[in-house]
Amino acid sequence: MYFTDRGIEELQSRRGDEEVTLAWVAERLSEFTDVHPEFETATERFATWLARLDDPED
């Protein structure tokens, strides 16, 4: 199992019943990259992918 899978499973088990806004997620991503700047590119790619997920042009 990949570390990502474990992290996602933990997120679901700990916070799966909560409802959050995209603004909340964006704030957490910003905080994460402030603490872990080495993940800035990966976070930017993930955020861009989410933003364009339903865009037929991409």
Question: Mind explaining what this structure looks like?
Answer:
InterPro entries: DUF6104. It comes from Nocardioides aestuarii. This is DUF6104 family protein. By secondary structure, the protein is an all-alpha fold. Helix content is 67%, strand content 0%. The chain has 3 helices and no strands. The longest helix is centred in the middle third of the chain and has 14 residues. The mean pLDDT is 89.
Which class best fits the helix and strand makeup? mainly alpha
Rg calc:
13 Å
Total beta strand runs? 0
User: Order of helices and strands, N to C?
Assistant: HHH
Q: Describe the largest sheet.
A: none
Helix content: 55-70%
Mean pLDDT: 89
- The span between the termini is 30 Å
Q: Low-confidence segments, ≥5 residues, pLDDT <50?
A: none
- Number of H- or I-type helical stretches: 3
Strand content: under 5%
User: What does the overall shape look like?
Assistant: globular
Sequence-ordered SSE layout with sheet pairings:
Layout: H1 3-15, H2 22-35, H3 40-51
Compact overview of the structure:
By secondary structure, the chain is mostly helical. The chain contains three helices and no strands.
Task: Give me some keywords for this one.
58 residues; mainly alpha; 3 helices; DUF6104 family protein; DUF6104
